[in-house]
Amino acid sequence: MSRRAPVAALLAGAALLALGGCAQDLPASSGSAAPSSSPTLTGSITVDAAASLNRVLPALARSFEQEHPGTTVTFGFGGSSALAAAIVSGAPVDVFVAASTTTMRTVSDASLTAAEPVVVARNRLEIAVPKGNPGKVTGLRDFGDAAKTVVVCAKEVPCGVAATQVFALAGVTPRPDSYEPDVTSVLTKVAGDNADAGLVYATDVRSAGSTVEGIPFPEAGKAITDYPIAALKGSKNPALAAAWVDWVRAHESDLQAAGFLAAQ
Amino acid sequence: MRRSRRDPLARIPRAVLVPAALALLLLVGPLVALLVKAPWAQLPALLGGGTVLPALGLSLGTAAASTGCCVVLGVPLAVVLSAVDGWPSPLRRLARALVTTPLVLPPVVGGVALLLLLGRVGLLGAPMFQAFGFQLPYTTAAVVVAQTFVGLPFLVLGVEGALRGVDRRFAVAATTLGAGPWTRFVRVTLPLAAPGVAAGAVLAFARAIGEFGATVTFAGSLPRITQTLPVAAYLALNSDPDAAIAISVVLVVVALVVLVALRDRWLQGLAR
């Protein structure tokens, strides 16, 4: 959310650069060749990512920053479509992780990706109900019950597209009380017990902790959401952006530990 | 006199004109950009999709209703606040700060707070839900409540400011002529506060018609029921930015027409 972080990161990066400049003189004066496996990564990057990644990616960034001291990864989380729209309008972002291949395509079609987007994780929908399941929801059929308060994502966002698919597969005509602008606001309504059920991603149920319970359903397996990642052409630090993409790809198992499905 | 009438700006120091021009640029610039970038050719097709007109109707209806609520509830509150001028200062400041809170609260947080109060497990909402099975969220009434919540401070502060400028001797004179509290309120206080009421109502209406965060959080987003024009614009932004710009143009034009019409017909008549 905060856009102030990059400035601090930049300052920190600059300070480290200055320090690094001093440190480099030492091996030269002692005449020994420093064993460096790769060109030194430094500075900072901004990663815009789908809201559902807002727990697992910062954890990955911490290990990345430890591996490459002097680097900073800052995040902007939000609805994939809104983030993509901002990137296409020129937002200074280095790496984009979308919750939909279609959304990623709006960025790659604008020739803004530095390399072909790669899917690093997948997700499936799950029914979220408040703790204790006060509405006695058992499955997708309850979303067609006018007596129950149910919320889903709007068709304009990826989770709403997936929701439309599973309802069609299950032959259910949903009668939602609200089409929410993103998956987070669906979860907020369910977690606060202001809805009997909502359709969210399985990982959202997990990250919401004890406030919500998840009910898996078979149709979810046929409406899988892909999470493509791509470094962006406009990056001021392409080396770090590429290294971060590689890092995420090498740690896909961490994403799976957070509830995501394997990319392939 | 004559010279100033020919060029009214000549009287104003240049140091004032420069920031004034910058302010105008900041206010009008984004609107101009919106109009320049609007996909005028596709506008009819984008707006004819069946979501914009119902959303527009809902926006106008709820904004009018919430402005009415603001006037009915806000004027009395402003009268009370201006009457307690004699209270100890910390108490007065606290009262004024509480009235201003919805202005500083991010609207989404305001929506969450409304849910905590009026949602079906909220402080007031839970007993209501248990007794009648009625919940306010997801209804058009909830949109009006959210808009009233964010618009009320504008009205209260506007009216209170107007009441402060009123000469208290009018009320005293009315009392000596035998007017009771109600007559004094209706015949003296209200007419004197009318310009403040009008200005506050215009601000509250403008704030209500643009309301997004509290509405979507508290009332939700269902076409024809709770999906107002700003909510429709935000959703469109996710899939079709051109449609979002088109909706925004409609929002701006409608708001301008309403505000200009109010200014000409109603505000001026009251103010002078």
From TrEMBL, chain A:
**Keyword annotations:** Metal-binding, Molybdenum, Signal
Q: What Pfam families does the entry give? A: SBP_bac_11 (PF13531)
N-terminal signal peptide? 1-23
Highest taxon of source: Bacteria
From the Swiss-Prot or TrEMBL record, what is one GO molecular function term? metal ion binding
Q: Which residues form a coiled coil?
A: none
Chain positions recorded as molybdate binding sites: 52, 80, 183, 201
Keyword Signal set for record: yes
Family indicated by similarity: Belongs to the bacterial solute-binding protein ModA family.
Protein name, please? Molybdate ABC transporter substrate-binding protein
Q: Which gene encodes it?
A: modA
